[in-house]
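Hi Y.,

Following your request, here is the sequence exactly as I used it, all 402 residues.
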Amino acid sequence: MNVLLGHTFYRSTAPSGEDEVFRSERRLLEESGIRVTTFERHNDHIDDSTLAGRVRLGMGAAWSRRSYRELSALIRRARPDVAHFHNTFPQMTPSVWAACRDNGVPVVQTLHNYRFVCPQAMLQRAGHPCEECFGSTFLPALRNRCYRSSLPATLAQVWTLALNRAIGSFNLVDRYLALTRFAAARLAAGGIPGGRITVRPNFLDDSPPPGGGTGGYALFAGRLTPEKGVVALLRAWERVRELPLKIVGDGPLLPLLREMATSKRLPVRFFGRLPRREVLRMIGDAVVQIVPSEWYEGFPMVVLEAYACGTPVVASRIGSLAEIVEEGRTGFLFEAGNAEDLAATVQGRAGTPLRLDEMRRYAREHFHGRYSPASGIASLLEIYCGVIHEHRTRNAGGNPRL
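Below is the corresponding structure, written out as tokens. Let me know if you'd prefer a different format.
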């Protein structure tokens, strides 16, 4: 099998789990003997330092003739059996799907967020879940300036979605991959063809060794941005003073969080960005991993990393997290954004060492049963084979959608 993988990397100053998923799937396919050709863009190369540059970038996110031409040429050289895309924003655009169609290659698209149904990409407004644009125009997004709190930036996103809906771009994808059942339902409600959505979770291709949970601290690892719930996390630690909190990551809220921790003398330490190996070691040593997100996460890789290390997860009861974390077995859930509930959860349910030891064992078993490299490659190849078969049957005049 010959597979074309496509991805636009996020800025190196704000790395995303999507980048790691792309790299992991590429490695796993290559190690399985699959021929892999990649088509990549890097957002570090974007020129948005001037108003003119931002305007060109925004309007160009709807369709890229350059990406269409370059991918078409690559397809003619590599002759892939199937193309699989991750992030196509903002440089690739849905034009890459058209290039595949025009060159006879079926398309798989992983949906890591809600960008194809929401101009803001996160189904969130003012810190709360929002689906106001579902079943209507995108006027609510314009009215609320949902993307970067900017009317011009939001207009560019609305233009991108409206144009591609009008010309049928979203029907060019043969199979959409949602990471959870929750995400699949919201994406279908937002306009993605529901009959083309398959649920396939993320996986880890390099399972870390189990940790002992003996570090005597709770851990947060991720971007320090509002939707990650880190302000509520520190407010919770005004009550959880008996368990130190370590925070790994960087982001625009770091100065505010440092000031909160210092002014209130909280038992919180900030480590900034660390190499992945060191982060995994810290996850394994943590008593619990905290995932306090306040938006509909796709499938946080940090949860899989915690399970692989055997570390229970304390997560917000919101969106996909309530599906990924099994209450009382792989972790505990609390009300999103509720610092008091988070504190009570950590102090009460996560404060029994014997139960946590049992949960550590189950988390490891759960990881190997559902999220291991073996399960990841098996599900991926099954999807590829199904899409290739459907495509060939359709072109041969058979049933277009078996």
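The mean pLDDT is 93.

Thanks again,
Q.
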